Amino acid sequence: MGVENSQSQMRKGILEYCILLVIQKKDAYASDIIEQLKKSKIIVVEGTIYPLLTRLKNSGWLTYHWEESLQGPPRKYYSITTEGREALKEMEQNWNELTEIVNNLKSL
Amino acid sequence: MKKTNNISLGKCVFCVEEDAVAKLQQYINTLEGHYMKEEGGSEIMNDIEVRLAELFTEYLSANKREYVIMDDVLNAIKVMGSPNDIIDDEIKEEPKKATSRKLYRDVDQKVIGGVAAGLAQWMNIPVAAVRLIFLLLFFFAGGAVLIYIICWIVIPQAITPAQKLEMQGESVNINNIAKKAMESIQKNNTGKTLGQIFNALFKIISVFVLIVASIIAVAITVIAVIQAFSPANTFLPMITLCESGAAIVILANISLYLIAVMPAVLLIWLCCHILFKNWQMRMTAPICMFIVWILAITTFLIIILTQHPAWMHHGMTINL
Questions:
Q1: Rounded to whole angstroms, how far apart are CA atoms B262 and B143?
Q2: Are strands B4-9 and B12-17 parallel, antiparallel or unpaired?
Q3: Residue B105 β-bridge partners
Q4: How far apart are CA A93 and CA B211, in angstroms?
Q5: What is the pLDDT of residues A30-47, one digit of tens each?
Q6: A58 CB within 8 Å of a chain B CB
Q7: Which end of chain A has less Cβ packing within 10 Å, N or C?
C-alpha cells in the first residue's frame, strides 16, 4: 500500500462521479468524455473508461445511441438517465460532505 | 518488404504488418482474459476495439499510409493504456497470496487420466510418490482401480490457464495467466528430458507390475483348472453348498475365479497399454472388466447367501 496505490484508489472512487458530471451537461461520445477527463487530469489512459461506462450503463445510470461518423465506425453517444441524475445528486451531496469533513480536519 | 495481414477490428478492415498483428493480438488477448470474466465483458471489449479502429484510421490518414505498422499499434496502446495501467487497480484489490490449491486432473502430466498428477499438485508432493501409492494399491487391492476410476470421473480436468493456476495454488491474475500461457507454448520445446526419464522409470515399473500380475493371473487360473477336475468338483474346498445342483456350484466357482483374477487382468491390460500403446487408451475394455468383476461379486454373494449352509438356518458351521 504505497502513496501511489491509495491515490489511485481515491481517483478511481470519484471517477464515476466525474463521468456523470461530464455527461449530464450534454450527450457525449466516449472520446469526448475522455478528452474532458484527460484535460482535468483525472485519468491518464483511455482504457480505464470503457469498463466504467459499461458498468454505469448496466446499472441504468447511462444509456446510449449509435450515431454515424464521417470517419470510422458508428459511435456510441452516451446520455444520462433520470436514475443517473438521482444518483448524481446523491453523489454530489456525498462529495460536498466529504470535502467539508476534509476541510474541517485540515483547519483543526 | 514486409508481409501484411488483413484484420477486422471494430467493424473495420485493416491491413496490418505481421509483427504489429502479433503485438495487437497479445494486447487484446490480455484485456479479453480479464474482462471476459465479468458481466458485459464482450461489450467492453467491443468498445475498446472500436476505439482502437478509430485511432488506426486517424493515424493512417495523418500519415497517408494504407497499412498499420508497429508504431501505430504502440501509439494506440499508449493512448489506451497498457494492461497494467488499466487493470492494475483491480488486481491490487484482491491480494490472494496463498490461495488454497484446487483439485483438478493435471492432463499436462497425465499417464492415464491425470488423477495422480492432479492429486500430487493438490497435496504439493512429487507425482512419482502418488503413482507409486496407486500402483501398490492396484497390486494389493484391486479395489483401488475403482477409486482411480471414480476420481477420474469426479475430478474435473484443468483446461484453462486459470484452472492450471488454481491447481498449483497460484493467484489468478493477468501476469500469471500470461506466464502460464507462454509456458504451455514453450513446453513443446523444453522440459522433455525430465519427462523422458520419468517415462522410462514408469515403464520399468510397468514391466515389473506386468510380470507379477501375469504370474498371479496364471497361478489363479492353474489352481482353478486343477480344482475343477478334482473329484470334489469344486474349485476351492471352502465352497461346499448344500442341496444345490451342480450348475449352481459351477456358477459360484466361476464367479469366485473371476473375482480373484479380474484385478490381475486389469493390471495386465493397463501395463500393456502403458508399454505398447504410447499412453493412449480407450476406456471400453477396463469398464467391461470392471462390470464383469462387480457382476461376479454380486452373483457369488447371492449364491452364498441363498445356498450356503451357514445362512440357511441348519445350524451348521462353515466348512473351512
A1: 11
A2: antiparallel
A3: B157
A4: 82
A5: 888 888 888 887 777 788
A6: yes
A7: C
Chain B interface includes A31 (CB < 8 A): yes
Kindly state whether A5 is in contact with chain B, defined as any CB-CB distance less than 8 angstroms.
yes
DSSP string, B15-34: EEEHHHHHHHHHHHHHHHHH
The candidate with the shortest Cα–Cα distance to B274, out of B193, B204, B215, B213, is B204
Phi, psi of B184 (to 5 degrees): -70, -25
- Cβ-based neighbour number of residue B89 at 10 Å: 15
DSSP symbol at B113: S
Place of cell 483401488: B144
Q: Which residue is associated with the grid cell 469498463? A: A51
CA–CA gap between residue B42 and residue B283 (Å, rounded): 39
Residues B199-230, buried b or exposed e (16+ Cβ, 10 A)? eeebeebbeebbeebeebbeebeeebeebeee
**CA of B48 vs chain A CAs: smallest distance (Å):** 7
Between chains, do A73 and B89 touch, taking CB under 8 Å as contact?
no
pLDDT 10s digits, B2-43: 888 888 888 888 899 888 888 888 888 888 888 887 777 888
Contact B127, B112 (CB under 8 A): no
Residue A73, amino acid: P
How far is residue B297's CA from residue B309's CA, in Å, rounded to a whole number? 19
Gap between the Cα atoms of A77 and A63, Å rounded: 8
Residue B309 burial (C-beta neighbours within 10 Å; 0-12, 13-18, 19+): middle
Global pTM value: 0.46
Q: Among B28, B37, B54, which would you mutate to test the A interface (most chain A Cβ atoms within 10 Å of its Cβ)?
A: B54
Closest CB from B31, B39, B89 relative to A58: B39
The residue of chain B with its CA nearest to that of A10 is B89
